[in-house]
Amino acid sequence: MAGKFFDEWQVGETITHEIRRTVTETDNLLFSTMTHNPQPLHLDAQAASESEFGQILVNGTFTFALMVGLSVGDTTLGTLVANLGYDKLLHPKPTFLGDTLRAETEVMDKRESKSRPGSGIVTFKHRLLNQRDEVVCECLRMALIKGSKA
Fold it and tell me: Domain MaoC-like: where (predicted)?
């Protein structure tokens, strides 16, 4: 499903995104090294095993990026002008290697753009859940979206 135009969104609308993703060691290792994050909890199995978690934690910025990415096809693919910001980013539970993650999105607010007639700002609340239905990440995303197909 392609993204929706501003006019098509309704406050309160909720989407359960179909694509799920199992996080691998390679995902975590590549993302951590690409972003120059040397945190031993993400990269050092021995150090992580000695932590309170007892195992490697998945890099939280990967978890956040995956959550947004899983939502794009159903929310803003082809209709996005720009992401304006993210707010209230939380990681209520850790993500571990092998967790299978899925995303949900709820439309919290929408308003016409003052600077771009015909476009509007939609505030999405994204949630990322693991295979145990625990929320592992959530945030608000403010997106400037094209007004209509015309």
Answer: 11-123
Question: Is there a contact between 135 and 88 (Cβ–Cβ < 8 Å)?
Answer: no
Burial tier of 103 (Cβ tally within 10 Å: 0-12, 13-18, 19+): buried
Give a yes or no: residue 44 inside a domain.
no
- pTM for this prediction: 0.93
Q: Is residue 47 part of a domain?
A: no
Nearest Cα to Cα of residue 23 among 113, 139, 128, 144? 128
Per residue in 86-119, pLDDT tens? Answer: 999 999 999 999 999 999 999 999 999 999 888 9
For 44, phi then psi, to 5°, come to: -115, 105
Domain count for the chain? 1
Amino acid, res. 79: T
- Burial pattern 32-52, b for ≥16 Cβ within 10 A else e, equals beeeeeeeebbbeeeebeeee
Structural domain includes residue 88: yes
CATH of the domain at 82: 3.10.129.10
